[in-house]
Amino acid sequence: MKTSSAVEVLLDLRQYSERIEGARGFIDLWQLLAPTMEGQALSAGKSYNIAHPKHGKIGITLMTVPPECAVFRSETPFAIHSVLEQPVVHYACAKCRKEGRRQYGPFVCQRCRDDRNETRLCDQHVVILDGSMASFCTEHHPVSPTGEQATFWCMGRQCQNKQIAWGPSDRHVHPNDSDYFYCPGCYEELFPQCTGFANCKDTGSNACEFVDPTSEKGCGTRLCNIHVRRWQIYGPHRLGLSLCNAHRRVSGFSDAQVAYEVVAGSAMRRGSGWRPPTLGSVRHILQNARGRFYELSAIFEMFRSLSSSLTKKTRLQDDMAHALRERESFWRRELEQGATKKTDGMVYFERLKAELRSRNLTGLDRVAEAMSYSEYKERGDDKLLIINLDESLRGFLIGKQGVTIKSIQARLGVRVKFEELSRT
User: Cβ(193)–Cβ(203) under 8 Å?
Assistant: First the structure.
């Protein structure tokens, strides 16, 4: 009971395991504590910690001390001003309850919940595997397919939406980020080892895209960025087809096989951005491989012939036929542009012949009669006329120290170059 001359105290029961019920309980507790305080000097703000042999520790803080109560006596009146107690735990950890403690259990075992039981768990007794916040009790600790106690959930595509946990011996960490980890199967899918060359330990992030015409399947040999060969059929600024060492010799492909591979490789990528290349790109590939000149119309006919040969009702051939149909109108415009360029080029060619005949220089008449038109290219103000001329006559056109050809080029406004590719 509080009186004006009583010493007011704050009791801290947060580390005291026995729960105090009602006024009688606090009177009994104080009678237990009083003997330990006998003779103690009392002053406001002073704190004491009294250990209980069974139930833990009790804290006492003096709030107010009247002058006449400077020393604790058996008759000193005390009043409990306030009490600090453990919070009431509504969702206690099941494991802690068995140990005689009440600890808040924010987690619920997922397997117990599936069985319509709610097993609450504190952060000390909960089982949470890396890769997910799914919680389990120790009785339902997930086990890996090999029987190991699981420690993580795989982040790979094969394991998505699958309730399969994996043990420490199955853990494969991302090569560049330790926060990501995978089971052996998913790791092999995402980071396969380069098999294009012996003893290469790098990740084979590229797969050979050569397509076997018989099986209609890609080669698939895994290649690292060092050992992959890029076939730049889409030009210098886009990612070309990946080729392994066994399929990198494009010069060994027949013309028909080149046409098949560029269309099949594009179709296998199955993206709207991966259309078959331009006629000019394929011509460049063939001219580099064969060392002879190809007309754009010949490349176009190769693709028409390929389209006629696609008679099987397979997914790949359907995709290839669709790609060829979509690309045909573009190729026809390319042919029209090529024909226009040839018309412009023939104008410069005839001017060149006339210029040669008008000059009274040795051999230029023979050059005018022997040369033939090859190709004309124009990019902005740069105009290039390519002609066929036997090497034995080229010196007459070039002239001493290039004087003749330079003056002709300046007069006609076009550069003249000799065709190095064979026409046979």
Answer: yes
Look up the domain containing 38 and give its range: 7-84
Token duo for residue 368:
């005018």
DSSP string over 336-368: HHHHHHHHHHHHHHHHHHHHHHHS--TTHHHHH
Residue type, 405: I
Provide the token pair at 367: 């050059």
Calpha distance 231→156 (Å, rounded): 30
Q: Does 198 reside within a domain?
A: no
Residue 54 belongs to some domain of the structure: yes
Tokens of 390: 């036997």
Is pLDDT above 70 for 316? yes
How many residues would you count in the chain? 424
- The verdict on pTM exceeding 0.70 is no
pLDDT digits (tens, 9 = 90+) for 174-226: 988 989 999 999 999 899 999 988 889 899 999 999 999 999 999 999 999 99
Q: What integer is the mean pLDDT of 348-377?
A: 92
Say which CATH number the domain at 386 has.
Answer: 3.30.300
